[in-house]
Amino acid sequence: MTDMSKLTPEQKVRRFIRQHDLVTGQQKLLVAVSGGPDSVCLLHILWKLQKELEIELYVAHLNHQLRGAESDTDAACVADLAHRLGIPATIESRDVKAYQLQHRLSPEEAAREVRYSFLAQTAAEIGAARVAVGHTADDHVETIIMHLLRGSGTRGLRGLLPVSRWQSGDDSLVILRPLLELTREETTAYCRRHRLAPRTDTSNLSPEPFRNKIRHQLLPQLQGYNPQVAEALLRTARIAADDLAFIDKEVARQWDKVAHAEKGSVVISKKEFSALPSALKRHLLRAAVETLLGNLKDIEAGHIEDIMDALDKPAGKVIGLPDGLNFTIEYDRYVLSPDPVSLCPFPPLGDETELNIPGQTTIPGWNIEATVIPQSEYTEVGNITDDFIAHFNYDKTGNKLTVRHRRPGDRFQPLGMDRPKKLNEFMIDARIPQTWRRRIPIVCSPELILWAVGYRIDERVKVTRNTKQVLRLKFKRI
Question: Can you give the pTM of this predicted structure?
Answer without folding.
Answer: 0.73
